[in-house]
Amino acid sequence: MSSPTPSSPPPAPTPPTGTGEAMARLLAAGGHGTGGQGAAGAGGGQGGPDGEGAPAEPRDPRAEIARRFNALIAAVFIVGLVALGGYWWSIERSIDQLRANTVRDATEFGLSLSQAVAGRVDATVRAVDVALQFLSRRPPERNPDFDAEARAIAASFPPGMLVQIGVIGADGNLAYSSLPGWKPLHLGDREHFTVHADDSTDDRLFISAPLLGRVSNQWTVQFSRRIDRDGHFDGVAVISLAPAALSAQLGEIGLPKGDVAVLMRSDGSFLARNTAGEEVLGRKVRADREFLRPDAPLSGWFMSPGTFDKTERIYAWRRLPEFGLVTTVGLDTARVLAGSERAMLRGRLRGAGITVLFVLLTGGVMLLLWRARRDQIALADNAQLYRNLFDRNLSVKLMVDPETGAIVEANAAACRFYGYTHEELLTRRIGDLNTLTPEQIAREMDDARRERRRQFRFRHRTASGQLRDVEVYSGPVERGGRTLLYSIVHDVTDRRRLEERLRASEMRHRTTIELLAEGVLVYGADGSLLSSNAAARTLLNADDAALSAGDYSLVNRDGEPLARDDYPSRRALSVLASQTLVGVPQPGGGHRWLAVNTRRLPPEIDGHIPGAILSFSDVTRVIDMEQQALKLTQARIAAEDASRAKSEFLSNISHEVRTPMNAVLGLVRQALATRLDVRQRDLLVNAWAAANALMSLLDDLLDLSRIEAGLFVVEHRPFSLDAVLEGAESIIEPVCQQKGLEFRVRRAEGVPDGLVGDPMRLGQVLTNLLGNAVKFTERGGVSLLCELATDEDAGTATVPLAVTGLHGTAQAAADFVAAAPVAAAGTDGAGRVRLRFAVIDTGLGMTPTTVERLFSPFSQADGSSTRRHGGSGIGLSITRRLVRRMGGDIAVASSPGMGATFTVTLAFGLADPVATPAPAPRPQAPAPVVVEADFAGRRVLLVEDNPLNQLVAGEMLRTQGIAFDIASHGAEALDRLALAEYDAVLMDVQMPVMDGYTATRELRRNPRLARLPVIAMTANAMVGDRERCLAAGMDDYLAKPVAPETLYEALRRQFARVASDSGVNAG
Q1: 3-state secondary structure of 845
Q2: CA separation for the pair 180, 102 (Å, rounded)
């Protein structure tokens, strides 16, 4: 990277010096030189862009250097190891010989001692045997002087050795003992008795193992011989010796501490030991001892740990086969070998000193060789390093003379990059490659030589004329006494292009972020703000300075200010991701609500977290909608609470009204059955009508409650349309007669009589509409038309305008009905018939505003009308809801002063003519009750707390000849049922002490009462009351006020059911 000087030719390449020359000398010494040129030399093979022009590579001498030095080091090591091994072998051999001689001497000494011990033991045993032979020939029963002789023999033993002299008779009992105060004792189970008693021919001395004497109560060794009489066994003579005395006798030989002398039987049982004699009594020596074998020699030796103290000893033994005894002498090996061990230690110490000296000398030689090897390899490594860093490096590398700009050296990568051979490149100047002017090149090279700069960016030209962007790292190096520039060239053309693309991509990214509707903030790992977009600054009401300092206000969802440490920007780096809701106070009041999402940026290669990104979305409208939804929910809950309160109120009102009304209607009915004059009957009839009107109002309220609760059920059963029309006519016609109004009912041709639907609800709809029409009509008339609905009537909301013109008298209404055309049969695809019912009056009429609110609950035409005509204002509301529940629709057409027409369109199924019930007769005023023969002999329990209702119900039962008892609450009812038999129970529900539900459940637990009919007779007439009674176990349900016929019908059903069940069970 130096400036060229075009006027002067480049100098010839200079061979490398320093490291390269040292390597060349090393290679020449090893026979692998390449001439005087180093790896960086100018001479070499020809090559081009593919690298053929790189200098020839000399052979690496490192392996040969290592091999030679390794072989020399190994030879020195092996020779030293062999010499050292030979020296130690001679030392160990001498030590082994010394040890063997010491053991041999100790063994001979031990054998001598064991033989001496054996002699003393033999003398003692023979003395005992002589005494036993003398005593066995002169037993006590044949020798009156036996005791004196025995005591004389006892006196001959050393003090403490003899324990006793005894004789055991042939029966195994002790016959004599030298111990004072001895007593007869059975010893027939002792070994020293049984061995002689079982063998009738053997007359020998027997020596027992140590045992605890039953007479002497101390450890003894029994010496015994057989007593014969005329060739037969006559007992045993015994001499008992103390093992301790025998052990003391062994100790008299004066063995050093650690040595042992032992007397034992040939089976290994210890009899005596010079030390710790008491501890071995009753125990045996190890079974693997050689002298225990039957074929063992008379004497021998071995080296082994002791049986009990585990001390290593040299044992010498001597057998006494005549008596079955063995004597052993154990010499402590450590004591025996102590002298030789000291000698051996001195020999080893001398050997160790010589070894250390030898190792130091050998190690020194090897260290010198290793250092020489290291230095030689370091020289080779330097040469190799130069080749790796320059020639073989994949980076483009040049050596340039800063004075002339000549290229002094180039590696293979440079040849490939520039497209020249190695020789061609070394004939070029740097100006041939660099696109700068010569003056610029000279300045740049001077900066590099003086180390004012080390990194440069240029554009270089290759042999093909292609221009490449390069980054050059250049610095001065000394070579051959002159300063050269060592330059590393990196091709950054592709990187420059990628950087341009990255800058363009980053610009697009920044523009996109800036235009986003969501606010975006990017924070660094230290919490500093890196970037923000306009939306973030707008949503947070802060500029970049305020955002960076956190100088803006946030509140939580409850509107309380957030602490700075709780800001999402502070917490973003501590969690991977989070979502939260914050509010930004607005200058005009209120808050802007923001949904904040944070995401920690992925870690970099070193695991460092670079920062976090935050996004803000304006969710103020969503929050407002949620608050509105919350208010709606609260309103719905309040409405449901109000509905429940209304239902409870209606339930209570229903119960409180029905209870006295049951008594009123019952008493009026009973009064009408008596003899009355005309005025009395009229008064009672009016009272009867007023009470029924009040009950009708109550029934309307309950119907409205059922419909609003969604519990209204539409029936589907066959019925007669004529019966429904006649029923409505029978109710409305008397009222019209009182007001002087004409009343007509007409069923058009083609309208079938047998239908399937809900006749009661249809009658209720027609009666309500007709009653409403009569109420608001002062002159003229009211008509009811029933005809087949046309297609135009399906879903219609009004009636033809011609109808609205009907006005005047009842005759005019009748003429309209008569003139109305009969439509074609209106049927639907399901095989049902669609009918249109029109109620037409000539009354006051209504304005459009009044029509709009006509069907709202508790609404009428106006306040004055309400006061003038009365009514609750819920009839039409119930009527429309009933019609819609039955799948139809209702419409009204009216004008002020022109009357009104209400139109109802309904669809019915067609009934089988056989299944269609005949029209019921018109209801009459309360008639005298006829006594039923079916009730004769029946007895009923009446459970009722209200005295008036008790009176009414009791009168109903009495008129039919039914016997009855009264209970005022459920507990009293259970008591009466336990004492008497009843055919049925009439059960009120709400009573003191115990209600009807509880009483029914309790009686059902009694198997005797499980099938007893229980009929609810209650003022609870709300939705679900019937179901609750049946769920409690009742069989039927009657709502007050109860008509006599209804009560009697319920009793007949239950009595028939019981009779049927009894017949089935009997069959």
Answers
A1: coil
A2: 54
Beta-carbon count within 10 A of 935 CB: 19
Q: What is the rounded average pLDDT of the residues 600-626? A: 87
Lowest mean pLDDT among 77-86, 640-649, 1022-1031: 640-649
Q: CA 389, CA 386: separation in Å to the nearest integer?
A: 5
pTM recorded for the entire structure? 0.35
Place of tokens 């629709």: 889
Question: For 437-452, what is each residue's pLDDT tens digit?
Answer: 999 999 999 999 999 9
- The bridge status of strand 219-229 relative to strand 299-305 is unpaired
Q: If one looks up domain 19-59+393-491 in CATH, what number appears?
A: 3.30.450.20
Task: Let me know if the fold of 245-333 is the same as that of 505-618.
Answer: yes
505-618 CATH: 3.30.450.20
What is each CA distance from 981 to 938, 972, 1005, in whole angstroms?
Answer: 10, 15, 16
Q: Which letter, b or e, does each residue of 245-278 get, where b requires 16 or more Cβ atoms within 10 Å of its Cβ?
A: bbbbbbbeeebeebbbbbbbbbebbbbbbbbebe
User: Three-state SS for 27?
Assistant: helix
Contacts 24+ apart (CB under 8 A), 721-725: 721/747, 721/751, 721/752, 721/753, 721/754, 721/755, 721/786, 722/747, 722/753, 722/919, 723/759, 723/917, 723/918, 723/919, 723/920, 724/759, 724/762, 724/763, 724/766, 725/766, 725/784, 725/786
* pLDDT of residue 823 exceeding 70: no
Tell me the two tokens of residue 433. 């490659």
Residue entry with tokens 């042999």: 463
Residue 532 — φ and ψ, nearest 5°?
Answer: -150, 155
Amino acid at 90: S
Rounded CA-CA distance 523/610 in Å is 9
Token reading at 219? 């450890």
Query: How far apart (Å, rounded) are the C-alpha atoms in residues 91 and 657?
Result: 133
For helices 947-959 and 620-672, the axis angle rounded to 10 degrees is 50
- In the predicted model, is pLDDT for residue 800 greater than 60? no
Contact by Cβ (8 Å): 207, 221: yes
- Cβ neighbors of 922 (< 8 A, separation 6 or more) are 726, 727, 730
Task: Please state the CATH superfamily assignment of the domain spanning residues 245-333 in this structure.
Answer: PAS domain (3.30.450.20)
- The per-residue pLDDT for 652 is 67
> What's the CA gap between 242 and 219, in Å, rounded?
7
Q: How is domain 716-910 classified at the CATH fold level?
A: Heat Shock Protein 90 (3.30.565)
Domain extents in the chain: 19-59+393-491, 245-333, 505-618, 716-910, 933-1066
Please report how many Cα atoms fall inside a 13 Å half-sphere around the Cα of residue 90, on the Cβ side. Answer: 7
CATH code given to domain 933-1066: 3.40.50.2300
Chain segment 830-887, per-residue pLDDT in tens: 678 999 999 999 998 888 887 777 776 655 554 444 344 545 456 788 888 889 989 9
Contact in structure between 694 and 700 (CB atoms under 8 Å):
no
Flag whether pLDDT at 168 surpasses 90: yes
Residue 976 one-letter amino acid:
R
